[in-house]
């Protein structure tokens, strides 16, 4: 009987956590193997709920203490249902000046919710593809970082605008 109560508590607690996030429309992570290769593209297929409302878009990252840079460069590409493509090179701050990693979390894994685009209206019906690729470079070096350590998961999130 006691074990059933414990399971019931965790089930209810999990439901409350998920249901509290009423702004979430899409939120998915994909795991990165031990190192994120520069040619490895993380893709998300999304079908927006409508073509009239505006949404905020985020790149979500989980990283560990093995991430050794203060910033992160990403190439994020949005492919529209009609084939049109918008490609952005984005830079995110990952550590404060002392080198302490930013993000949330109490363990050595930090979560970062990074702005991608604000107030996006998905005017075309159909499936969109979001492609995310790391584009890190070390100071003074022409070639990029071949295998980026410390990023464990890459995610993409769509939220309703908060009113």
Structural class: mainly beta
Name the strands of the widest sheet in spatial order: 1-10-4-7
CATH top-level class: Mainly Beta
DSSP summary: helix tally: 1
Poorly predicted tracts of residues: 13-19
Using the 3D structure, state the CATH architecture: Sandwich
Supply the number of structural domains. 1
User: Share of helix among residues?
Assistant: 10-25%
How much strand content do the residues show?
over 45%
Q: Rg to the nearest angstrom?
A: 18 Å
Pfam families: GldH_lipo
Protein name: Gliding motility lipoprotein GldH
Organism: Seonamhaeicola maritimus
Keywords: Lipoprotein
How would you summarize the topology of this molecule?
Blueprint: H1 2-19, E1 24-31, E2 35-37, E3 42-46, E4 54-63, E5 71-79, E6 85-93, E7 110-121, E8 128-134, E9 147-149, E10 151-160
Protein name: Gliding motility lipoprotein GldH
Keywords: Lipoprotein
Organism: Seonamhaeicola maritimus
Your description of this structure?
By secondary structure, the protein is mainly beta. The chain has a single domain, classed as Jelly Rolls (Sandwich), CATH 2.60.120. Helix content is 11%, strand content 47%. It is built from 1 helix and 10 strands. The strands form 3 sheets. Strands 1-10-4-7 form a 4-stranded antiparallel β-sheet, with no helix packed on it. A hairpin with a 5-residue loop joins strand 5 (71-79) and strand 6. It starts with a helix and ends with a strand. Mean pLDDT is 88; it is low at 13-19. It comes from Seonamhaeicola maritimus. It holds the Pfam family GldH_lipo. Keywords: Lipoprotein. This is Gliding motility lipoprotein GldH.
